[in-house]
Amino acid sequence: MENRTRPGDDRATVVDDPWLRAALACALCAVDPVGTGGVRLHAQAGPVRDAWLAQLRDMLPPGTPMRRVPFNVTDGRLLGGLDLTATLRAGRPVAERGLLVEAHGGFVLLAMAERLPPGTAARVTAVMDAGEVALARDGIALTSAAAFAVVALDEGLEDEPLSTALCDRLAFHLDLDGLRAQTCTPLPVSAADIERARARLPVIAVPPGATEALAATALALGVSSMRALLQSVRVARAAAALDGRDAVAEDDVTLAAQLVLAPRATQFPTSETAPEQADAPPPEPDDTPPEDTSPPEPEAGQDASDSDAQPPDDRPLDDVVLQAAQAAIPPGLLARLQAAAGRLPRARSAGRAGALRAGGLRGRPAGIRRGTPGNGARLNLIETLRAAAPWQPLRRAARAGAPSNCLIDVRPDDFRITRFAQRSETTTIFLVDASGSSALNRLAEAKGAVELLLADCYVRRDRVALIAFRGTGAEVLLPPTRSLVRAKRSLAGLPGGGGTPLAAGIDAGWLMADAVQRRGDTPTLVLLTDGRANVARDGAGGRARAEEDARSAARRVRASAFRALFIDTSPRPQPAARELAADMAAMYMPLSAADAVSISKIVRAIS
Q1: How far is residue 294's CA from residue 251's CA, in Å, rounded to a whole number?
Q2: Domain boundary among 377, 392, 423
Q3: Would you tell me how many other CB atoms lie within 10 Å of the CB of residue 597?
Q4: Could you tell me if 529 and 431 are in contact, meaning their C-beta atoms sit under 8 angstroms apart?
Q5: Residue 467 and residue 417 share a domain
Q6: Same domain, yes or no: 469 and 573
Q7: Distance between CA 26 and CA 414 in Å, rounded?
Q8: Which of 176, 338, 419, 575 has the smallest CB count inside 10 Å?
Q9: Based on the domain organization, do 473 and 532 belong to the same domain?
Q10: Pairing state between β 354-360 and 350-351
Q11: Measured in Å, how far apart are the chain's first and last C-alpha atoms?
Q12: In the beta sheet, which residues pair with residue 355?
């Protein structure tokens, strides 16, 4: 293959040029689609992503299938099932091929992969592992081959991650954001080159040292997935096949480390001196006369400048591959990983608009169930006919000879009802300690946080409420609302001072959260206090009794499994506040100098 960029020609160019890395990944994935698993392509819709996809189509041999799967695809269209029209026409069950079966030997494009439902992602990964679709539904039982590669089109932001299981099965993780279409020059690799590489691929030999070097690089970069190591070996073999060689070379190993392992790095490699080298005694003096280390004379006909060319690299292959992979780590990757690791945990079942509730009468369709329409439940006509179709021959035979004008015999057992999933609203309940000399500052912080949350309530669909506790009890200042004007009016002019009836405040928050949950919404409790209770439930003084009542109220919140955030507002965080947060099963945040912006960010993270 002449006049094309070889995968191992210019290591510095491969490292520094994001588009060249993406183009090489495209070519190597086309050589071994099933072995590499596919590509995670993070890029917004536009000319750059279109150029990469067009390059992939041009490299594939003619007739290679490529099927686009929308994020809201149904199970029947994804995996296959009963072809209702053909079944009713033929009078017998007729199977319909799903998109994954149609993509056998080719590629599956997952549109908006960041929004792919977990169930759909699990089905795709299961078929990728098995290499086939085993169908047993709607009176049909068959097995069809489905070996393909996935191109996951990721348009999401940092808070919209792809399925971890799906990402683990894709060898290449590419990021095309920030590239310009003018720099997207197609790689000079034709479909004929890909076909020749595929024919050579089964005979490519992998020396043992190559696998050991890739394993050592993966360990140094903190890549724990065994699939990533296997994928890097497959990529090295594909690179050798594309270059026309019969064995994997050093360039192929370094390229595989750069394309597969570097984007998955979770740590910078650290160089450690072996203990035996550190403790080794100094070498003994040698009486042998030193050898002549002068450079050899150039041979006849050889230019002296040629003899000064770069000397051969005598470093171990492990070091060469690790250095190449370290140079290919995307800028800012580790910083983003550290930021993600420090991000507050977030319940997977709860989104910014509250928890996902199934079984409602409106919302997003979430499957079907057997049932009778009525009381708001809607009949799914297509699925009802699909359930009735396999039984038509038996039902016709059962009524043979009886006069009937019925074309399709539908019975109550065939009725199917559409199930819906609907996100509930989130209500954030602020419990503010209004006791003591710093009450005015804390109320100002709570007021600022409430205003920031209300500013985007139309997007988040959140409600906020405010409960203040001081003196001998708690007071609901602001019932759940979205009204910014009402919130400001309720917060204005609140006096502070007196004791700290912490148990009464937590009880009032629990009662409101319970009422919110009974209404079908998702409550979140945010407690701002220093945790120093000195007033019991009944209003009597005494620190010991007040602390016991507060811990009892906290355990009540924990038993109800409400999401909670404990913000310790004391100048010096105390162990008692942390223990109280543990009793509530709340996230503990010591913010002695909390401001409205930081409180708002924390609340958004857990909501």
Answers
A1: 31
A2: 423
A3: 12
A4: yes
A5: no
A6: yes
A7: 48
A8: 575
A9: yes
A10: antiparallel
A11: 56
A12: 350
